[in-house]
Specification:
Elements: H1 16-31, E1 47-54, E2 64-65, E3 68-74, E4 80-89, E5 95-106, E6 111-116, E7 119-120, E8 126-130, E9 138-140, E10 151-155, E11 169-171, E12 187-190, H2 198-209, E13 213-218, E14 240-243, E15 246-254, H3 260-268, H4 274-285, E16 291-292, E17 296-298, H5 305-315, H6 321-345, H7 349-370, E18 380-391, E19 394-405, E20 409-414, E21 418-423, E22 430-436, E23 442-447, E24 451-462, E25 469-476, E26 479-486, E27 497-502, E28 505-512, E29 515-518, E30 525-526, H8 527-531, H9 554-557, H10 570-577, E31 583-585, H11 586-591, E32 596-603, E33 617-628
Parallel strand pairs: 5-22, 10-11, 10-12, 12-13, 13-15, 18-33
Antiparallel strand pairs: 1-3, 2-7, 3-6, 4-5, 4-8, 8-9, 14-15, 16-17, 17-31, 18-19, 19-24, 20-23, 21-24, 22-23, 25-26, 26-29, 27-28, 27-32, 28-29, 28-30, 32-33
Length: about 625
């Protein structure tokens, strides 16, 4: 249950009078500038923000949660407690999106790096950091610079001697404590054991399992470093090996001995060959869209907005229009010819007034009840979750949720897990609300009547569910002949849909009791074609002159009911599982080409649900993703 001292309990019926109140509220809500509210804490004059920095090398990957580092200093000898409030603006003074709030506690005279993880939509954003109400309690952050995920050399900032290398460097204490913030990092170079323990070591391993790349070089003694227990999985004697979908390579050379040419071929671009260029050309010839300069193929759907758009449709409240129309006709018939006949043919006008006022009162009450938002519906949520397996019982969960509200008031939700981060992904709208990240994180909004709010969240969640067991697969002339998975105990609910990806092909699986099995009679689909949503250029154009995409399965999707409706969202969710944004990254496809990836769509389990008393009507699905070598 959400606990908040500022919770406002205000409810009112949407009647004729309340429509006026709603319009006034809408006008005020959209026209007034946000006024920051600050929790009671220490004197903000005693806190100094000494340094800030974006990402791992000053550049970030957009449409991701990215690390923002803030070095703060308590200039007093007594402990300091307060909040850092991060807000986003668009080349002006008006705020967009919700405010990100980070609680901070410092000892006397302590200097410490604080990590925030805002969701960066694009590089045209301005970010502002506040820690108090005064003009001296706010700073404008450096501009967001967009760039490709880097590969950085990790070093000890306390070391006396630092060698000069061609690699971009990152202090070991700047590695995030949650895998959520690592999507804008391609690779890590290690020539000495970093002092990573607890949450930071776990985040590093999670990042590697999900597809990171680690390069281990010789140390000053000309030997490979020996890693402590927390990173013991790097101590393999093999020169190349995998950890989950990640890749580890040992290179017998010191960091300072690399030239830029050697670093480019052996580290920065070691996953891009002439064969990949050949594959790209073949993909273009199969009907893929325009090639982008970053090594990808353009997609016709967006990373978040397509999912939110569909969820908006699923979450909308329906009024009982047939009854409303029938009541309108009945009301008109009562007035004419009903009241007209009585008033003209009978001398006793009492009957006319009795029928007229009775009909007016009865139908006013009827229209008031039938015209309410959703009738007797409750506040609702519709969501889809992507849960990528990190090993037995652990998942990296990304969730897209639409919260639909009937009555005004402050609404809040919280999610289970560690390293929780929130975003409304708004590009143009101010959102009156606060996003508190971390374990026990809370997203709260001030919502007007009949409004919806989009919410993106990401967290690391543990469950007691075992992973499905791959029973085996068989090939003949590079064609899949058999594939099956044992799903006994793996899911609380029977799967809705399942498919597997092998060597760039998509195979739909038959769902049987405790078994997923490939049917040889079904033809596979090339993954790059499966991810593409075809565009029908004969359709109408939108307001920007861009043709609206048409889903080839739209006719079939319209026939789906209940949770089956969520099957139409599988395509962009699979794209998100590969980390694709506006384009297909061929390098990421290649990193997963040697194994089997299983996707299973099910109803949202109870331990993946958010906690809130404000949205009792909940519905959603989870797309589980598992990788097998």
């Amino acid at each position: 249950m959400i606990q908040n001292e500022r919770t406002i309990s205000r409810t009112f019926d949407i009647s004729t009078t309340s429509h006026v109140v709603m319009l006034v509220g809408l006008f005020i809500g959209f026209m007034q500038l946000p006024v920051p509210a600050y929790a009671q804490g220490s004197d903000p004059d005693l806190l100094v923000v000494a340094e800030t920095g974006w990402g791992f090398d000053g550049r970030v990957k957009v449409q991701e949660f990215v690390p923002l580092w803030v070095q703060v200093k308590n200039i007093s000898s007594t402990p300091w407690q307060g909040e850092l409030q991060l807000s986003r603006k668009m080349r002006g003074e008006r705020q967009f999106g919700a405010t990100i709030v980070q609680n901070v506690s410092l000892q006397g005279d302590e200097i410490r790096w604080i990590q925030l993880s805002p969701y960066v939509v694009d590089d045209y954003e301005d970010w502002v950091l506040r820690w108090g109400p005064g003009k001296n309690h706010v700073i404008d952050l450096p501009p967001v610079l967009k760039g490709e995920p880097p590969t950085v050399l990790v070093y000890d900032s306390d070391a006396v001697l630092q060698e000069t290398t061609v690699f971009r460097r990152m202090p070991e204490e700047r590695f995030p404590t949650s895998v959520t913030s690592t999507d804008s990092l391609r690779g890590i170079i290690l020539d000495q054991p970093p002092f990573w323990q607890g949450a930071r070591a776990r985040a590093f391993q999670d990042w590697l399992i999900l597809g990171g790349r680690v390069y281990i070089l010789h140390n000053r003694d000309g030997k490979y470093p020996v890693f402590p227990m927390a990173l013991a999985f790097l101590n393999s004697e093999q020169t190349q090996f995998r950890v989950g979908s990640g890749y580890v390579r040992k290179i017998p050379r010191k960091a300072e001995s690399f030239s830029m040419t050697q670093a480019s071929s052996e580290i920065f671009n070691d996953d891009w060959t002439s064969e990949d260029e050949k594959l790209r050309k073949e993909m273009l010839n199969t009907g893929a869209n325009q090639y982008s300069p970053y090594g990808g193929l353009n997609l016709s759907w967006s990373k978040n907005q397509d999912l939110f758009r569909e969820l908006m449709e699923l979450a909308k409240f329906e009024r009982f229009w047939p009854l409303i129309y029938l009541s309108v006709f009945a009301y008109l018939a009562t007035l004419w010819p009903g009241c007209y006949i009585i008033g003209t043919q009978q001398k006793n006008v009492t009957r006319f007034y009795a029928l007229f006022f009775a009909a007016t009162g009865f139908f006013a009450l009827t229209f008031g009840l039938l015209g309410q938002v959703g009738g007797r519906a409750e506040n609702r949520s519709r969501s889809v979750l992507l849960a990528r397996s990190l090993g037995e019982g652990s998942f990296d969960v990304t969730g897209w949720t639409v919260l639909a509200n009937i009555y005004s008031g402050e609404k809040g939700v919280s999610h289970a897990g560690n390293g929780i981060f929130y975003s409304t992904t708004q590009e143009t709208e101010y959102v009156p609300g606060e996003l508190h990240s971390g374990t026990g994180g809370v997203a709260s909004f001030e919502m007007l009547p009949d409004t919806k709010r989009t919410l993106l969240h990401r967290a690391r969640v543990r469950t007691v569910l075992p992973n499905p067991k791959m029973l085996g697969s068989g090939d003949e002339d590079l064609k899949l002949q058999s594939l099956s998975f044992d799903i006994t105990g793996a899911f609380d609910e029977e799967p809705i849909f399942a498919l597997a990806i092998i060597r760039g092909n998509v195979y739909e699986l038959d769902i049987q009791q405790n078994l997923l099995e490939f049917d040889r009679r079904r033809q596979p689909t090339v993954l790059t074609q499966y991810l593409q949503k075809p565009i029908d250029f004969n359709m109408n154009f939108n307001m920007w002159g861009v043709p609206r995409p048409a889903d080839e399965d739209e006719t079939e999707d319209e026939k789906l009911i209940g949770l089956e409706q969520y099957r139409s969202l599988i395509r962009p969710m699979i794209g998100n599982s590969f980390g694709f944004g506006r384009e297909i990254d061929l390098r990421k496809l290649k990193s997963h080409s040697s194994g089997v990836r299983l996707y299973v769509l099910t109803k949202t389990p109870a331990n993946f649900e958010f906690d809130s008393k404000d949205f009792p009507d909940r519905e959603g699905v989870v797309l589980f993703s598992y990788d097998y070598p």
